[in-house]
UniProtKB/TrEMBL annotation:
Family: Belongs to the UPF0145 family.
Source organism of the structure: Brevundimonas staleyi
Coiled-coil boundaries: none
Gene3D superfamilies: Hypothetical protein apc22750. Chain B
Transmembrane regions: none
Protein known as: UPF0145 protein ACFPIE_06445
Length: 106
């Protein structure tokens, strides 16, 4: 699956627009991440425990997005974006979305 944050993929042309596709996951922090993150935040700088948690959430949402696009018949996703919303303290929804299309080489 080709993906792009732009509205085109260099060297390819869109032959069919399928529409909006998305991948959603909901992730929560755990006691260990909070403890490690709390210590790291007191020291300052990069908070690795939360970076890993954010990356896992984004990767999971991306994988669901790709599945959705494939199921709809697409072979590429354009205008790929991420969004995150805290549903409640410690629980975050991560959304990956874009436009599923069919592309072919120019």
């Amino acid at each position: 699956m080709m993906t792009s944050t732009t509205n085109e993929i260099f060297g390819h042309r869109v032959v069919r627009h399928i529409g909006v596709v998305r991948g959603i996951t909901v992730r929560s922090r755990n006691v260990v991440s909070d403890a490690i993150g709390g210590v790291q935040s007191m020291i300052g700088g990069r908070v690795g425990a939360y970076v890993k948690l954010a990356e896992v959430g984004r990767q999971e949402a991306f994988e669901h997005l790709v599945e959705h696009a494939k199921a709809a018949g697409g072979n590429a996703i354009l205008a790929l974006r991420y969004d995150a919303t805290e549903i409640m303290p410690g629980v975050t929804e991560v959304l990956a979305y874009g436009t599923a299309v069919v592309v072919e080489p120019q």
